[in-house]
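# nightly structure sweep
# worker-07 picked up a monomer target from the shared queue
# config: single-sequence mode, recycle default, output format = C-alpha cells
# input follows
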Amino acid sequence: DEDLVEFVVYFGTDTTAGTLIDTISESTLQVNVTTGQGVVYYWKVLSRDSAGNTSESDTFQFRVN
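# output follows
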C-alpha cells in the first residue's frame, strides 16, 4: 500500500547477515565496505511501514573474485 517509511540494511560474512549497516528512509543506499578476495558476503533488508508492520527480504550473497 506504498506506505514504507524505513529500510534496515544488514550485511556480513555469516549467513545471517547479522551486522546492521544503516537504517534509511530512502530506497537507495551507498555503502563503503572493505571486502576481501574469495570472501562470500551476505545482505538482507527489513522494511517497515507507517503502521509498524515489517517484512524481511531473503538473504542474498556475493563473492569477491
